[in-house]
Amino acid sequence: MPTASGHAHGELRRETDMLDYFDTNPKPANLDRQITLARTFIEQHAKDGRRVALVTSGGTTVPLENQTVRFIDNFSAGTRGATSAEYFLQAGYAVIFLHRQFSLLPYSRHYSHSTNCFLDFMTHNGAGAVVVEHEYQHQMAEVLSRYREVKRNNTLLLLPFVTVNEYLWLLRGLAMQMQPLGAKGLFYLAAAVSDFFVPAERMVEHKIQSSEDFHEKAGHGDGERQPAAHMEDKRLVIDLDPVPKFLKMLVDRWAPRSMIISFKLETDPAMLAVKSRYALEKYSHHLVIGNKLNTRKWEVLFVTADGGERWIRVPAGRRTKGITGASGDAVEDAEQREPAVEIESIIVPEIAAMHTALINKWESDETRK
Ligand code: PAZ
């Protein structure tokens, strides 16, 4: 059982780790330009009194070499983030979409994935022009008009990252820029961020040579650690450091007045509620959304600070595209198919309502002071 002083010590270590992180891992070359874009965007929407959501999306990479040939990645395509961003925009938010480069984007996601190639929606009209197939006209016209409106109002800012290092620098920089929004800022952390990484001081410069004839000699001084990825005999050994707990810093230091929502992904059903609650209690933010890898498009678990746990589910009968009224459809059976209703269309309005309640509470607390 950890003691109170043990907890305090752990807290302190976590903060120090995170502060050290930015002293010892390089600032991305284009960070200042991205932060300037965000500042202008936030200022505009703050002036208009609009809420701003920072939506993170897609997976982060962990490079093994400075001149990167090999890296570790994860499965996320950015579906959750890109879909949610559309519903935040629909709910009147301005959205900063912090996404993995080349992952799915709001609006274009409907036509850009390998299963949704835009060419499959097109045809020749017989008069030499290429047009949208008749059966897709209605849906595409709707997506197009929502996209055009967002462009016209400048309510969507796209900021890409690739590595976990870029992600962390950006998240901190953007959180600082969002501070003046106060309670109107919201963080929706759907990106799949690596828990492990190669710190700059343990990263090799060049491509790791697989052939024994070209192995670099270790040549390390006393007490120095090996490069995180190196060859031993014929084996590639990868020894990663933990990524410091940035959520704690976000909640306590970088965005103390914003609403913060994190996601928790699990594969073992028995771990989902336990780990989601653990994360909420550890970081003391507003909401953890638990989801399982195989069922994440059909159901999620909302875990809140008041002790509440609530499943949000695609309604029975809408669980599979093209099948209506099939109320008994087992969620697991539908794994390979798409639900007829996007679960984010339920998640995001729920969050917007929770955000309204929080803003009202914070405002009435302020007036009582
Ligand atoms: O990008 P996607 O839609 O395929 O997956 C979304 C998700 C499962 C990555 C997201 O819902 C999530 O749980 N993100 C947090 C993952 C984690 O760090 O536990």
Automatic annotation (TrEMBL):
GO BP terms: coenzyme A biosynthetic process
Signal peptide: none
Domain of life: Eukaryota
GO molecular function: catalytic activity
InterPro entries to which the protein is assigned, alphabetical: CoaB-like_sf
Entries under PANTHER family matching the protein: CORNICHON-RELATED
Protein name according to UniProt: DNA/pantothenate metabolism flavoprotein C-terminal domain-containing protein
Organism: Meristemomyces frigidus
